[in-house]
Write a structure and sequence with these properties.
Number of helices: 12
Distance between the termini: 14 Å
Structural class: alpha/beta
Strand order of the largest sheet: 1-2-3-4-6-8-11
Number of strands: 11
Mean pLDDT: 92
Largest sheet: 7 strands, mixed
Order of helices and strands: EEEHEEHHHEEHEEHHEHEHHHH
Strand content: 15-25%
Low-confidence stretches: none
């Protein structure tokens, strides 16, 4: 399969690909892109589809319209309306499976955020490797206001900001604008609404131009060692370095450097 333009809709999630960059769009603007059980399953299916496509080097996740990236879980679905308790419990696990699939996919991910990123939507943005937000973005974990706790998003939040900051946001339900989010460190870039697509494209293309194997191995080792001690991390990094140096891309990169030319990475198109 060659890199080109593809579009495919799976229920409430739209999958598109432009060259080496795939995009998953939650397409429920009338619900501020709230996530039903079906939406969560379709997002995970989209990540798996991107992983199976050798031409995909970056995955962008976003929401349709201008009101919300994702406003969180569909509360009717969260209560398990219309399904039995066992099915509802399994459905709530879809978000955890989505996080695991994102982190293990080997594909760099970018959250493109406009408007509200709340509750599970906040967690989804934080589960991405890079967050690029328009200046109208609002982040928050408001579950406590309805007598709940943001259980499922605890892991991506504490991976994205100091634990005490995450705990404060969880306990108060306070909403954070894009500028504060960047100051707190969980948003990489804040841009104007008009500049959002350009910023996402620029960052995605910068990543896509790098060695796919270097990105894949490096990103995997990053998550494998995140939160570990130095003694736990160093053997993993040492072993991964030895694997990386034996890859075709590493040999090509060294040769290209010595020959003063641009490298041609494995799977790249002329």
């Amino acid at each position: 399969m060659s890199a080109g333009n593809l579009e495919h809709s799976v229920s409430s999630v739209k999958y598109t690909r432009d060259g080496y960059v795939a995009t998953l769009t939650i397409d429920r603007p009338e619900r501020r892109n709230a996530m039903s059980f079906e939406t969560l399953a379709s997002l995970r299916d989209g990540v798996l589809r991107a992983r199976s496509d050798r031409d995909v080097r970056v995955l962008v996740i976003t929401g349709s319209g201008d009101k919300a990236f994702c406003s969180g879980a569909d509360l009717g679905g969260l209560r398990g309306e219309g399904v039995d308790a066992e099915e509802a419990h399994a459905g709530r696990g879809h978000l955890a499976e989505l996080f695991r699939t994102l982190w293990s996919s080997g594909i760099p991910t970018i959250a493109r955020v406009r408007g509200y990123a709340l509750a599970g939507g906040f967690g989804l943005a934080m589960a991405c490797d890079i967050v690029i937000a328009a200046d109208d973005a609002i982040f928050g974990a408001p579950e406590v206001a309805v007598g709940l706790w943001p259980y499922m998003i605890t892991v991506p939040l504490v991976r994205s900001m100091p634990p005490k900051v995450a705990l404060e946001l969880m306990m108060t339900g306070r909403r954070v604008n894009a500028d504060e989010a960047q100051r707190l460190g969980f948003v990489n870039q804040v841009v104007s609404v008009d500049g959002l697509d350009e910023a996402v494209t620029r960052t995605a293309e910068a990543i896509a131009q790098q060695s796919p194997s270097a990105i894949r191995l490096g990103r995997t080792s990053f998550y494998q060692t995140l939160g570990t001690t130095a003694d736990q991390a160093l053997p993993i990094l040492h072993a991964t370095l030895s694997v990386a140096t034996a890859t075709d891309d590493a040999q090509e990169g060294v040769s290209a450097f010595a020959e003063k030319r641009k490298p041609t990475w494995g799977g790249a198109h002329e």
